[in-house]
Design a protein that fits this description.
Rossmann fold; 4 domains; 23 helices; OB fold (Dihydrolipoamide Acetyltransferase, E2P); seven-stranded parallel sheet; alpha/beta; 38% helix
């Protein structure tokens, strides 16, 4: 049902709801409550401490805007037993108009401590003087700033849901048929949604949410199980040229770590087997995945077969080509570099040599997908920074060979719960240790007021031969943003001192100009490189052991970890500085990031904060985004749902043709949906 037909919603509210993504009753029903509050228990400020989840009722005794680089609104609530500060970093003008001294409010939130107890962005409900407070178990919804301004607060949405569920013949067109939910011993989706929006108890709401998680997981697990089953046999085992590995290892300027040795052994065993070998090589930044992949490629290519190494950016492709080509040349293996930036004549020449089998190894970017690129005998595909590519892209490259083996590599650690489901068809191989001699990167949070002191330290280091990355979040100037752009920071550093040379790169630059600036930084003629996240992968300068990240709150933790991985690649002490004010809402998560270099721990933290995101790994393949399922909290559900998916594939449920058709229509509505798993 379209919301324009829903009684009681005028044009203004319809516009606000539409801007928030609500165009139908179905959209509203799938608006997930972010929390539930037991309003039967009113807390006392005097009895509360940091970490407590509380409900206070009291009067505002002080309120006002605090101006500054990060303006905020602060109000003090008094409940008769004590006082607590209410802090707002967003919607400050709205709160300043509405929260005034003498007004009565109910505030709900979790207490934290910063110069006393405080609630940051609590849920608020205005109470008239003498108004009786009614308790109960109630859902809490995310309210946009526009909804705040339109006075569409928590009470509005709770009343709206009560009216929706009072509608006769309420139904959901995109929900699974009741026959399927019954087979899974679950209640219908609409019944579980009612449990969330109109809960009778916490237990009832949680049971409804659990059932919705199971229903949501099933299609995804079916797809993963089908993908896993689609691996076929090559028909014959392969003999690897292990002497090529031995010669290349002898030429390396370092000794492989124990983890690299184990990973290489597993990969070689898989490559020699009859069945297609598909594996995921995970390793933290700087753990040495590339050399493992190179040795495996050498062993295959030396047997006369063809290998493709695909990476997401030209910078990384050039880096790999420059690093790996000498080893391939020494083994008599012909190597090519195929980029989108290559000229037409060069592309044709490379494609011709690949089709004729004259080139054994090609390193390239998305250009490898081109329909003009054909192989004579592609048997091994390696994909670096695999999260930048979608499943469809991965399979498009594999289709250019005859059931080739596959190794995907990730320097962004994937929590085990996510990896075992999303990459359930891949053998997991993990590199935990880093090469000997590397020192940990010391990460520090720096107040904006200490910016000049930090620059003095960087200048001193630069004059001794150290080099520094200065990462910013913006390419262009924006007078409405607090964060600085590339040009602003470059000018700031040049004005600070003429003793250092400062360069700048970003993704909108001409490629030749960007490469020239990078080369100058590598050679040492530039001491500071101001850059956007274009340096996140493919830049390896062991002499650079300093990094500054401006506006780090604009980056996810996993991305910050990738950026930090650009330094600490030598045997000298490395420093990473995050410029963040003490009153920043991101201060706590940045402090957690600074306290660890464990990529897997950071990945878990990042997923808790941001969600799993696009689970297919690339915007180009479509997202499989979950409303209910949480990759961190619900790890125990994954294996159960995978087992159910396998059971459905092995023992097809005896549904009627009519029910099968209904299930197929529902499944086809899902992102990347495919009904093969049901039929």
């Amino acid at each position: 049902m379209d919301l324009t037909s829903f009684p009681g919603l005028g044009p203004k509210r319809l516009k606000v709801l539409g801007n928030a993504g609500f165009h139908s009753v179905s959209d509203l029903l799938y608006n997930i409550p972010r929390d539930f509050v037991d309003r039967t228990r009113i807390s006392k400020i005097s009895d509360s401490k940091a970490g407590d989840k509380v409900i206070f009722i009291g009067k505002i005794v002080r309120a006002g805007l605090i101006r500054g680089r990060a303006s905020r609104f602060l109000a003090t609530l008094d409940d008769g037993t004590g006082q607590i500060n209410l802090i707002f970093f967003r919607g400050t003008n709205h709160w300043a108009k509405n929260i005034t001294p003498g007004t009565r409010w109910m505030a709900i939130g979790r207490i934290n401590e910063y110069r006393g107890l405080q609630l940051v962005h609590p849920e608020l409900q205005h109470l008239e003087e003498g108004e009786e407070f009614k308790g109960g178990i109630v859902p809490v919804y995310t309210i946009t700033e526009e909804e705040h301004k339109a006075k569409m607060e928590q009470r509005f949405f709770r009343n709206l849901y009560a009216r929706i569920f009072a509608m006769p013949n309420l139904s959901l067109q995109d929900s699974p048929p009741n026959e399927l939910t019954s087979y899974m011993r679950l209640s219908p989706v609409l019944e579980n949604l009612r449990r969330l929006h109109l809960p009778n108890s916490f237990a009832d709401a949680m049971q409804g949410k659990l059932q919705l998680k199971k229903m949501e997981l099933l299609p995804f697990c079916l797809r993963m199980s089908v993908r896993r089953r689609n691996l076929v046999f090559r028909g014959q085992a392969r003999n690897l040229d292990e002497s090529a590995i031995a010669k290349a290892r002898a030429a390396l300027p370092f000794t492989l770590t124990h983890g690299q040795e184990e990973a290489l052994t597993k990969i070689c065993e898989g490559l020699k087997g009859k069945k297609q070998f598909h594996a995921l090589l995970q390793g933290d930044v700087g753990s040495g995945k590339t050399v493992v992949a190179m040795l495996a490629i050498l062993a295959v290519a030396k047997c006369g077969e063809q290998c493709a190494l695909m990476v997401p950016t030209d910078i990384l492709a050039r880096q790999h080509y420059k690093t790996l080509k000498p080893f391939f040349d020494a083994a008599g293996i012909r190597t090519a570099l195929l980029l989108g930036a290559c000229g037409v004549t060069e592309k044709r020449s490379i494609a011709h040599e690949l089709q004729m089998g004259l080139t054994q190894v090609v390193i390239g970017t998305h250009a490898l997908f081109s329909k003009d690129v054909l192989f004579n005998n592609l048997t091994f595909v390696v994909i670096d920074e695999q999260h930048r590519f979608g499943v469809n892209q991965r399979e498009a490259l594999l289709a250019k060979g005859h059931f080739p083996d596959l190794l995907v590599m990730s320097a962004t650690p994937i929590p085990r719960s996510l990896a075992m489901t999303l990459y359930g068809d891949l053998v997991p191989i993990i590199l935990y240790e880093k090469p000997a001699g590397r020192k940990p990167v010391k990460t520090r949070l720096v107040e904006p007021a200490k910016r000049d002191d930090m620059k003095k330290f960087l200048l001193k280091e630069a004059l001794t031969g150290n080099r520094c990355y200065w990462v910013v979040s913006r390419v262009e100037f924006d007078d409405e943003s607090d964060s600085k752009c590339v040009a602003e920071v470059k000018e700031e550093l040049e004005n600070f001192s003429n003793q250092w040379k400062v360069g700048a790169i970003h993704g909108q630059m001409d490629e030749k100009e960007r490469d020239q600036v990078l080369n100058d930084f590598v050679k040492g003629s530039l001491q500071v490189l101001v850059a956007t996240t274009v340096i996140e992968v493919g830049v390896n300068v062991p002499e650079a052991n300093l990094m500054v990240i401006d506006a780090p709150d604009r980056f996810g933790l996993a991305q910050l970890h990738q950026l930090r991985g650009r330094i600490g690649r030598g045997d000298k002490e490395a420093w990473c500085f995050l410029i963040a004010s003490e009153d920043s809402g991101a201060r706590e998560r940045l402090a957690s990031f600074a306290s660890t270099e464990d990529g897997f721990e950071i990945a878990e933290m990042d997923m808790k904060e941001r969600g799993a995101g696009n689970l297919e790994g690339s915007e180009q393949s479509g997202a499989w985004v979950f409303r209910w399922f949480d990759w961190i909290e619900d790890q125990g559900l994954i294996q159960k749902m995978l087992e159910l998916a396998e059971d459905i594939l092995d023992n097809k449920p005896e549904f009627s043709e009519e029910v099968k058709e209904k299930i197929q229509k529902w499944y086809a509505l899902l992102p990347q949906g495919n009904a093969d798993g049901i039929h």
